[in-house]
Amino acid sequence: MRPTAPPDYPDDPIAEPVHKGRGALSNEPSRYDSERRIRTTDGWEAEVAATAEDDELPPLRTTLTRDATRTIIARNNSPDIGFDRSINPYRGCEHGCIYCFARPTHAYLGLSPGLDFETKILFKPEAAKLLAAELAAPKYKCAVMAMGTNTDPYQPVERELKVTRQILRVLSDFNHPVGIVTKNHMVTRDIDILADMAKRNLAEVFLSVTTLDRDLARAMEPRASAPHRRLEAIRALATAGIPVGVMTAPMIPGLNDHEMETILDAAVDAGATRAGYVPLRLPLEIKELFEEWLKTHRPDRAERVLSLIRQMRGGKLYDAEFGSRMRGEGPLALLLSQRFAAAVKRLGLNRLGKRLDTSAFHVPESARTALVDAKRDARQMRLL
Question: How far apart are CA 299 and CA 296, in angstroms?
Answer without folding.
Answer: 6
